[in-house]
Amino acid sequence: MMESPFDRALDIASRQDRRRLRVAGLAFTAMAIIVAAIPVQRAEARGKPRPDYAAALPVAAPDKPADGSILNLAGGYAGLVEGARARAVGDPLVIVLSEQLSTSKTAASKTAKSAAFSITPPSKGPLSILSANGLNNSGASSFSGTGNASQTSSLGGEVSVTIVELRRNGTALVRGEKQLMLSQGREWVQLSGIVRLADIDTANRIQSGQVADARITYAGSGDISRAGKPGWLTRFFNIISPF
Q1: Number of H-type helices and E-type strands within the chain
Q2: Are residues 214 and 127 located together in one domain of the fold?
Q3: CA-CA distance, 150 to 45, in Å (whole number)?
Q4: H or E segment and range at residue 96
Q5: Contact 208, 97 (CB under 8 A)
Q6: What's this model's pTM, rounded to 2 decimal places?
Q7: 122 and 175: one domain?
Q8: Please, are residues 222 and 185 in contact by the beta-carbon 8 Å criterion?
Q9: Which of 120, 149, 178 lies at the terminal end of a domain, its last residue?
């Protein structure tokens, strides 16, 4: 049975379509592998808080020697001047968040350059045939660019932390977190830093501006947080885009 030219054309078209589908499938698979290989360095990017901000436990008090005395200084004694302020490992205190940060930057650049060259040929002689307009030359270049950037951030509230480590110079390393489980997701605030015990007020509170080497993280997960982030395909094209 002879094959008509129309059948051969259909067979060629079907083979080309199968080839296009295979190429598209390979391209999609390669793109998925590249996106899956993109490293995620922070735990917040995975939608989970870091686990190393758990509350510190107090150090177990040593057994009181049998000396016949009722007073045990290692069992939680607080002097009259100290009051209820945090002073030992595991003691909680409140950090009052009052962060205000505003930055701005403006850059401008402008350059210009011009040059001209002209020759007047003689009116007599063999060079008199030259045109004065043909010997004139000029050039100019210019550049102008501006850039502006500004950012304003603010964070308020309170978060309770615990003393993790006491240091001999009167400072302490504190660390803590606050997690909120909301109807549309989950949010958490994690804080760590170094405080001076003398800066803790009588209400057992200290301002966040008095925390040295402060590490403050405010993040969340859920529908609202996910809606504010680009999808994986958008992130892929942003990575490979040269513009």
Answers
A1: 3, 6
A2: no
A3: 24
A4: strand 92-117
A5: yes
A6: 0.56
A7: no
A8: yes
A9: 149
Asked if residue 158 and residue 142 are part of one domain, the reply reads no
16-57 pLDDT, tens digit each: 667 776 777 777 676 666 655 555 444 444 567 777 777 777
Give the residue ranges of DSSP H helices in 37-157: none
Question: Please, are residues 191 and 176 in contact by the beta-carbon 8 Å criterion?
Answer: yes
Q: Does 117 share its domain with 80?
A: no
Q: How many domains does the chain have?
A: 3
Do the Cβ atoms of 58 and 88 come closer than 8 Å? yes
User: Rounded CA gap, 191 and 160, in Å?
Assistant: 9
Same domain, 87 and 198: yes
Phi and psi at residue 138, to the nearest 5°: -150, 155
Q: Is residue 65 part of a domain?
A: no
Instruction: Provide the token pair at 146.
Output: 């501006």
pLDDT in tens, 68-103: 666 666 555 666 666 678 888 889 999 999 888 888
What is the per-residue pLDDT across 181-231, written as a single tens digit (0 to 9) for each? 877 778 889 999 999 999 999 889 999 999 999 999 888 877 666 666 777
Residue with tokens 């509230």: 157
Lookup: tokens for 240: 């490979």
Residues 6 and 33 in one domain: yes
Contact 89, 76 (CB under 8 A): no
Q: Which pair of tokens denotes residue 153?
A: 């951030």
Give yes or no: residues 87 and 109 share one domain: no
Enclosing domain of residue 141: 105-149
- Clarify whether residues 114 and 200 are in a common domain: no
